[in-house]
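ok so heres the complex, two chains, lmk if somethin looks off
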Amino acid sequence: MDVSRARGRDCRARKPGEDVTTIRDEGENTPLGRLWSALGDRAQAGGLELSAEFACVAAADRLGMTGACLVVADAAGAGVPRYASGELGTRLMQLGVTVGEGPVAEVLDTAIPVFAADLTSGASQRRWPLFTPLAVAEGVSACYALPLVLGAIRVGVLTLYGIEARNVGPDRLGEAILYADVVLYLLIAEQEGRDPGWPENGFPVAAPEVHQATGMVAAQLDVGIEDAFARLRARAFADGRALTDVAADVVARKVRFVQDTG
Amino acid sequence: MRDGTLVEVLVELADTFTGDFDVIDFLHGLCGRCVDLLSVDAAAVLLTHPGGGLQVVAGADEQPSMVELFQTQVEEGPAVDAWRSGAPVSKPELAGAAGQWPRFAPEAFSAGFAAAHAMPMRLRNESIGVLSLLSKTPGELDTGSLRAAKAMVDVATIGLLQARLVRRHEVLIEQLQAALTSRVAIEQAKGFVAERLGLEMADAFAVLRAYARSNKRRLTEVATAVVGRAADVQDLFSRTH
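and the predicted structre for the whole thing:
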């Protein structure tokens, strides 16, 4: 049983004087929450789990792209191939890693999306002189690479590729970013080996205290920001509390993390 | 408010459009200048999340309670109304607005604010964000302040997009997404600095900002280096306060 589901939405830490009815539903009623639910329903209907891979493929379908690849960042920030929806995607991913250049490398470095609608263009050739001709030779003409990040925490890159040059319109681009958020949270949840209980407890996107608490824990434990985030989530799970609640306590200095001794 | 002052502020803001430009730092400064220039008591900028919805990215006052108050407007309030309609929204008397904004109005009022105004940031018939203003005294913004607010909003939009080629919508989405990611990184760094130096969040932000300025580095880059425990920002922690 997922403990987190047993709690209502009104578990977010309240400020003095703030009553229960003013707590906002940060979960299901957001664009991200709605997409999450829709993908979960679709996965279930197909007898599948909502996984990062499922969401990647759904993203490619939504954008009318040929396929998707997923690269995750290792401790050093380098990209490690994790999944591709087809043979072409696998080759594209490997190519990027081998050459060390291209949309994925750029996104890993800057955390800014790269939208390459036409790899056969002069602009692409100038931007990635090694990667572009090889990618085009493989048969890839469009490449949209989306960062999977939470501030300074680099989780990976979602790439949606096409065999034809393709200008994805602004609305679809916005949707692609939402799909990337879903993939991001699925990857985070996977690290914990459990259902994160989202969106009942809200996605930690618009909650500054979650990010502030992450930074505080990193300083308290003298660890990297990714580890700090994992520890914060582990504490929430162990205590059976919403992440935003624990984060609020950390920021209010009611909860501290101490380094393990011995 | 004199036109001369507005021109000075605009020149000052435009001067920051250099190689080490940081969008969050810039918007924070812009909000601060709005408070001075428009005779309001609080200002914040909310930007469009490419997937939908609004997100606070900068405010003149970084105290969590103020950020939270502005963030409330993501669902209800003058800011989201202005953002959706594409037209400025003004409420000179918040006291009577509980019917219109049943959550935001009482919250703002009990925080001591009597009036609220919002101006959308527009790019080619689309709202990319909104400037939200709160005042402790009731009343409309005077003509001069309205004109200045419009100018500040335009500068905010330009700052977000800078000199980049924006005919392609992709650039806008890249910039919006980058701003949102920067904001999160800065929140993480605020927590880190607050813990290390025993500060409140607003003061931690001020330390980060001051360090970035005096070292001529981008605020976001300093934030990332701080949480990355990079060697070259360790002197930030040896500052005395």
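quick notes: The mean pLDDT of chain A is 84. thats all i got rn
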